[in-house]
Amino acid sequence: MTSADDSDDDWDEFMDKFTEERYKNGFSEDNWEEEMEKIPLFMTKAPEEIDPKTHPQLACLQALIHDEDRTPEEKAVSLKNEGNAYFQEKKYEKAVVAYTEGLKANWEDQVNNTVLLTNRAAAQYYLGNMRSALKDSCAALKIKPDHLKALIRGAQCCMEIRSFPEAIRWCDRGLKMHPGDKKLTELRSAADKHKREAERDARKAMAKEKKEQGERQRLLSAMTERGIKLRLPKRRGSDDEDEEQGQGPALDQLTQDATGARVFLDDQGALNWPVLLLYPEHQQSDFISAFCEASCFIDHLAVMFGEELPPWDTDRKYLPQNLQLFFEDEEKEVLYQVVPDMSLLKVLQHKRFFVKAGSPSFIVLVQGSPFSKKYLSEKTLKR
Predict the structure, then answer these.
(1) What DSSP character marks residue 239?
(2) What pTM does this model have?
């Protein structure tokens, strides 16, 4: 039989070990925070994936949550809580999955199902899935027609998809059951404001379109009167040669020049064209944004190549009196020479001139230069 003194001696010996030996399985100063994170009770955030080897306690808890032996009530409540935890961490996709599984638990408690639907609607809302969020809000209201959160979420979804009249209807429906609710009142006010702004913008757009249509019609009439021909580029995959198109479709393209400049009628009723001048010898170009149809080419050339020549003309060859102008008939692969003293309108009325891509274009060469001779020798020239 062991005496009391022997027992005390053994206890003293056992306690002395704590002062002499370090506990081998305890947390160290370096890793205690990491170890605490592995204990579900002390976790500050859930891991993305639950590995039983890394988080055995958490894996056990998850197995309990999804245990097939539990009642529908236990499953639904556990999954709702799991979804809420994910929602708080802004892991909305996982929250949607948890809420969906909770609904699949088939618990007949309609209050719980309404909460699952509205919570899933909230998660879908923050994921940007407005149609899905709206659908869940509608489903929640079928169960509980006066559910405030579902009414608010439905109105918010309608706001996000810019269906302002529908948002107003949701708010009005909610305010009938919850008179004076602050959130619904604010949403309705915002929806009404956006609805009036959208209607105003639609009226402005309609007026603008009507004005532009009138301008297009006046341009079309002016071009038809002058005998100016428009042509659309050959469609991709078509073997047909470019043909003169109806003025309507070509005019739509004509008023959408890539540079932003457009043909327009001035106060005197004259057409002003955006004109492109090409210098193939130097691979350069000039753009005249408003070339009046009554002006002659020499008028512009005198300004462009007057006292100050372009920096790329190092040989100072591009003097107004030395320049030749041509337009190309791409279909016939023929160059037609343009007299510099000729007006733009006269050239545009040529039987083989077609305006393409919104801007009449012309080729500029230096008369008698080696490059010009070679360039012209490779083309068929007509005057």
Answers:
(1) -
(2) 0.53
Distance of CA 40 to the CA centre of its chain: 42
Residue 364 pLDDT greater than 80, yes or no: yes
As a whole number of angstroms, the distance between CA 156 and CA 154 comes to: 5
Instruction: With CA atoms as reference, report the closest residue to 94 among 161, 42, 45, 157.
Output: 45
Query: Is the pLDDT confidence value at 191 over 60?
Result: yes
pLDDT digits (tens, 9 = 90+) for 202-238: 999 999 999 988 988 899 899 999 999 987 655 555 5
DSSP H stretches of helix in 144-287: 148-160, 164-177, 182-226, 247-254
Model confidence band, residue 18 (pLDDT cutoffs 50, 70, 90): low
Are 118 and 152 in contact by the 8 Å Cβ rule? The answer is: no
Coarse DSSP helix, strand, coil percentages of the chain, rounded to the nearest 5 percent: 50, 10, 35
All residues at 6 or more sequence positions from 61 whose CB lies less than 8 Å from its CB, including other chains: 40
Cα 358 to Cα 41, 259, 291, 331, distances in angstroms: 72, 10, 13, 18
Evaluate whether 25 touches 32 at the Cβ level (below 8 Å). Answer: no
Strand partners, 366: 323
> Which residues, other chains included, contact 359 with Cβ-Cβ below 8 Å and sequence gap of 6+?
257, 259, 261, 273, 274, 275, 276, 287
Q: Do the beta carbons of residue 116 and residue 132 sit within 8 Å? A: no
pLDDT bracket for residue 249 (50, 70, 90) = low
pLDDT at 15 over 90: no
DSSP state of 115: H
> Other CB atoms closer than 10 Å to residue 215's CB: what's the count?
14
Percentage of residues in the chain having pLDDT higher than 90: 60
Do the beta carbons of residue 334 and residue 347 sit within 8 Å? no
